[in-house]
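I'll show one example:
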Amino acid sequence: MLIASPAPDAKQCAVHTCPGRWTFPDLKAGDIVFKSLSVTLLLSLGLLAGLAACQTTATPPPLNEEYVGEFRFSNGQALPLPEGTWTSVARAHRRNNHNNLLETVTLVATDSGQVTGLVIGRTNIDAARSGWIIPKLCQRSDTHLAEVVSYNTRDSFCWGIVHSDHSKNFSGYWGEVLRPYFDYVDGRGIAAPKAMIDVEMYKAKPSRFLSARYYWNPEVEGFPAPAVAAWQNSDWNVSNVAGDAEKLAYLERLEAWGRSMIPRFKAAQ
C-alpha cells in the first residue's frame, strides 16, 4: 500500500533546468551609461537573445519517465512525491489572468493493473507580477479537512482532504491534465477508480507558488466503487461518511499521512 511515510533516503531525480533562468539581474535606466549607442544596442540585443534562448530551451522533463522521491518542474522547483514509483503522463502550460506562465504535471502510480495513486502538481514558470490567486481549497467548507495557516495572495499555506470525481467528466484545464492520464491507463488496460481522495497542499511566496494534489484510490483498501460518481452524491461526500466507521478510519490514515508530508512540501524549492 502506498499510503506510508515518505522514505527519508528517497532517490533524487535529475534536475531539468535552464541555467540562469532565475539569475538575470533587473536592469534599470541609468544604471550603466554607454559611450557608444552601437555598443548599447549590441549588448541589449545579446541580453534579449540570451533570455529568449533560455525560455525556449527550458522545457519540462519528458513524459513516461519514472520518478522516485521528487519531480522537478522546468524551473527547477521540486514537487515531493509519496513513497513508490511515479510515472509522468501529462504536462500542460497555461497563462493565468496576470499572464504568468504556469506549468502542471500529472504523475500516476499503479500496481497489479490498478491505479493506486495520482499526483497533480502545479507551479509558476514566470515570476509573479502581483501575487497569486488563492486556491479554492483555502476557502472551502465542504471538505473532510481544511487547515489554513496563512491566507493572502503573497504568503499562503493551506492543506486539506476532499473527495474527487474521476468519472472522465472533464473539460478545459482539467481536460489538459486528466485526458492524457486516462489515455495512459486505458491504453494499458489499467483500472482507474471513479472516485479518489485528494490530500491537497498549497503554498505561496511573492516569487513562486506550489500546489500538489495527492490522490489516493480507496478501492486499493477494499472499498467498493461508489454507486454514484457525481461529486455531490458520492459515497465519499463529507455529508455521507459521518456514520461509516471504516471510511472515517481511512480518512484518518490519510490525514496522518498528510501531516507527515507537510514538512517535505514546505521545504521543497
